[in-house]
């Protein structure tokens, strides 16, 4: 693209991507600095059409209540560090959303968050023993309220009738659960943020794809094109945030950030089985997570999952791992090949050698037909019939591969990572799970990195937005109890 494209606008903040992360940052900055102008550029024709779309993710409030991969066991010792950290971050989300509801930024919370029990499933004696140890470890912890456990088949059948029907209980089975879980429609949440942002003066340009970013003194020029007409323009911004999902890495690279040198991206897609039988959907009310297969990435942990989308209850199972070279669901098959650079080739090669189990897993998943996928579902729901389910494509994720010393050369990471330049004038979010559910916490990290000199001036407002800011619930149970009750009431979760 020509760098002589006409600069038609000047803004304080340019946000690339109209998903939950960009709109979260935009909402925070409007609270902290309402005089700053904002513009959002989105390549698709509306907000939340990629990873934030409700059927492109599991909709789990990732508070680590039921996800077993967040509580690994090594040499008989259970490590809950990651579960606690993720839970703390999700509490930041609850506080921020509550503030936004209380002040009219967000509307009816039932449109985006609903109470749904979170359940962990163990099958086989080894898993049952592990789950009991996990329960014993977490049940007294401040951040995991109301945790329960049973290995009684009658209680199992009462809690999960759809999963009990036809089950051979001669194999040991157990569940732990809490009623404190939630289901979240990140698409609806994003749209509510967008509606308020438009009223506040933020300009959204849909169907406009950012092609590159270039420095302009202490500012940035963001070049973009209209995907429908081909018209090319540019906007000059004081600060740029790249919330473009899988395309974020290449856009940050185009800006010349040394911080992304050597970083590569590994795309992983997925598929769901979605229930089409209303009678079955009504028989299940829980997010039931099991153990991942060897080599499976964290976002592929199997779960039988109640959803509440646009007021309708739904049920899905999966995800089944998949692979495509696209970096976005609506991306190009050339994305992976175009992202390869001399500086990140060692990272790619290093991971290719190390992640053999992951490669085998993805190959096995890609080659599964519908009947094979149904057999996997029957491990959770023994009486499942193919006529009651349809296969849909889930969202596309790009995991970060960071350069590493020899002999590894590359390290594949499953999680989110905030990247910014040393001046704090441009930043982006890379990676995936747990992603959307901890967006406010990730954006707080971004504010600290990029606007450190303003944090003292913003302090009072930040504590209004997030009362626990700078504190940890894990060591302040009274603060957690007080905050939990307030957010439960504001988000109408006591229903």
Question: What's this model, at a glance?
Answer:
The chain is α+β, with helices and mostly antiparallel strands and 495 residues long. It is 32% helix and 27% strand. The chain has one domain: FAD/NAD(P)-binding domain (3-Layer(bba) Sandwich).
Summarize the SSE layout with pairings.
Elements: E1 7-16, H1 20-32, E2 38-42, E3 73-74, E4 77-78, H2 81-102, E5 113-115, E6 118-123, H3 125-138, E7 148-150, H4 153-159, H5 161-164, E8 173-178, E9 182-184, H6 186-199, E10 203-206, E11 208-216, E12 219-226, E13 232-242, H7 248-254, E14 264-275, H8 278-282, E15 287-289, E16 303-309, E17 312-322, H9 335-339, H10 345-354, H11 356-366, H12 370-378, E18 389-393, E19 397-403, E20 410-413, E21 416-420, E22 426-431, H13 439-450, H14 455-465, H15 477-490
Characterization of this structure:
This protein has 495 residues and is α+β, with helices and mostly antiparallel strands. It has a single domain, classed as FAD/NAD(P)-binding domain (3-Layer(bba) Sandwich). 32% of the residues lie in helices and 27% in strands. The chain is built from 15 helices and 22 strands. It has helices spanning 20-32, 81-102, 125-138, 153-159, 161-164, 186-199, 248-254, 278-282, 335-339, 345-354, 356-366, 370-378, 439-450, 455-465, 477-490, and strands at 7-16, 38-42, 73-74, 77-78, 113-115, 118-123, 148-150, 173-178, 182-184, 203-206, 208-216, 219-226, 232-242, 264-275, 287-289, 303-309, 312-322, 389-393, 397-403, 410-413, 416-420, 426-431. A hairpin with a 2-residue loop joins strand 16 and strand 17 (312-322). The longest helix is centred in the first third of the chain and has 22 residues, at 81-102. The radius of gyration is 23 Å and the shape is globular.
